[in-house]
Design brief:
D-Maltodextrin-Binding Protein, domain 2; alpha/beta; 2 domains; 8-stranded mixed sheet; disordered N terminus; single chain; 14 helices; 14 strands; two-stranded parallel sheet
């Protein structure tokens, strides 16, 4: 009996040791990620929720902070934040250049095929006045159509102060000789858009700089309710580059059916960025961020949902719903990240 007990005990120990030898700890076990999201709410918040859930599956404890892109770059460069996944490239290139030695762009973009941006006008006005190019706003009579405050100039809704996209718009207005007829309006973008939507609903001429996929183009649908006014020629500030050129093929709603359409910065994408030391020490994070990406149709669907409800609960519900419907894809990303540490 005594011998049998010893044999059973030894066997149990061997099983425990063998199990322990084969059981692999998660790559993020015992580690924390200081994850940042931008201060402009959109489908990027849904993306970030999904990414955070994936990083937690990898064992990481994720601490979320909401900051501007410029603040993130500064903090990540100093080692005070680790990762962000909603860096707009090429618009944020100027802010990225000073920190590129300490902050790395990861992957090739989170929107499959990238997004576009440009100058959007209501279709009724575009067709009535045969508007097919942004430079036509040089005509005072055309510009006056979009005058919202009585000064005779077109009021072009622009980005928040401090956003690189707004600097590009201001530059192009000057470059194309439109400063005498067009005034860009910079403020809190969401607030400005509320009045823009109201003008559109009243049937008044509407002019706005925006991008897609976004909640704006979900409301002001290019091709059916609005059109894109292409720029007359390539023009960008010296510190920002249209990585793939300004011409974009297959843009739905380009004025006059033009294809390709010469857009403000060409194509753009949400990019992930990370402190270089952190990402070098965490190959699983690098692999996961590089794997995770969604088609434009998914981003547009998210934006449409957010147009109904932008609460934290709604964002969480949309993110959870996507994972539930795409569990196999999500698990593939996590598995690839886990293998990256081997």
């Amino acid at each position: 009996m005594h011998k049998l007990y010893k044999m059973l005990t030894a066997t149990a120990c061997c099983v425990a040791i063998t199990h322990g030898a084969f059981a692999q700890s998660l790559p993020g076990e015992g580690k924390t990620i200081r994850f940042a999201r931008g201060d402009s709410l959109g489908a990027n918040y849904i993306q970030d929720d999904i990414l955070i859930q994936g990083l937690e599956k990898l064992g990481y404890d994720v601490k979320l902070t909401t900051v501007s892109t410029i603040a993130f770059f500064q903090a990540a460069s100093q080692g005070d934040l680790d990762v962000a996944a909603d860096i707009n490239i090429p618009q944020e290139i100027a802010a990225y250049e000073p920190v590129k030695d300490t902050v790395e762009l990861v992957g090739d973009g989170n929107i499959v095929g990238g997004g576009t941006n440009g100058y959007l006008v209501d279709k009724k006005t575009a067709e009535t006045y045969n508007l097919t190019n942004f430079e036509q706003l040089k005509d005072p009579k055309i510009a006056a159509l979009f005058d919202a405050n009585g000064d005779g100039k077109a009021d072009l809704v622009n980005c928040d102060p401090g956003w690189q996209c707004g600097d590009v718009v201001d530059y192009q207005v000057e470059k194309f000789g439109l400063a005498d007829t067009v005034k860009t309006v910079r403020g809190k973008y969401e607030v400005l858009l509320a009045e823009t939507f109201a003008r559109f609903k009243r049937g008044e001429p509407t002019l706005v700089y925006t991008w897609q996929p976004s909640w704006v183009t979900d409301t002001l649908k290019p091709g059916t309710e609005t059109v894109w006014l292409p720029i007359p020629y390539d023009a960008m500030p010296d510190n920002i580059h249209a990585t793939n050129g300004h011409l974009v093929k297959g843009v739905v709603g380009c004025a006059g059916g033009q294809d390709p359409c010469r857009m403000v910065t060409g194509s753009w994408n949400w990019m992930s960025a990370a402190n270089r030391d952190f990402i070098a020490e965490n190959p699983a994070v690098r692999a996961f961020l590089a794997e995770a990406k969604w088609p434009t149709s998914t981003w547009a669907e998210w934006e449409s949902e957010l147009n109904k409800d932008t609460s934290d609960r709604a964002i969480k519900t949309i993110a959870d719903g996507w994972i539930a419907k795409n569990q196999a894809q999500f698990d593939t990303w996590v598995e690839a990240a886990t293998k990256a540490v081997d």
